[in-house]
Amino acid sequence: QVQLVESGGGLVQPGGSLRLSCAAFGSIFSLFDMSWYRQAPGKQRELVATITIGGSTNYADSVKGRFTISRDNAKNTVYLQMNSLKPEDTAVYYCNGRPVDADTRFTGYWGQGTQVTVSP
Fold first, then answer.
1. pLDDT tens digits for the chain (120 residues)?
2. Which residues, in sequence order, are bridge partners of residue 47?
3. With 0-12 CB in 10 A as exposed, 13-18 as middle and 19+ as buried, what is 98?
4. Cα dihedral sign for 27, 103, 63, 66?
5. How far apart (Å, rounded) are the C-alpha atoms in residues 28 and 72?
6. Which has the closest alpha carbon to 6: 89, 88, 97?
7. CA angle, corner 108, sides to 107 and 111, nearest 5?
């Protein structure tokens, strides 16, 4: 009953920018901690950024200073602004939402992913 839909991926040159969006449907968005993950071929899925219901943010060391996560609760949408992109950022990016009062075993809801490719 909860659906997350990512958009905004594409092909960009090194040093360029992209903004990813994740829209949530069928949920009380304001009660969800939201995160972006990414997965490159042959690698484990890694946490990129998180924003809590209170607006606190956290970033992976590899993207600090380049990526910004934000949310618009009125639009049930979370964003990831990506600047100064590097080829190492190439991956499928996934949106994740987790209710703050969920059972500790529940890993959250996941979107289908959007491809980001950084290449000359």
1. 789 999 999 999 999 999 999 999 987 788 899 999 999 999 999 999 999 999 999 999 999 999 999 999 999 999 999 999 999 999 999 999 999 888 889 989 999 999 999 999
2. 37
3. middle
4. positive
5. 13
6. 97
7. 125
DSSP string covering 12-43: E-TT--EEEEEEEESS-GGGEEEEEEEE-TTS
Encode pLDDT of 76-101 as tens digits.
999 999 999 999 999 999 999 999 88
Q: How far apart are CA 97 and CA 2, in angstroms?
A: 9
Tokens of 5: 């839909």
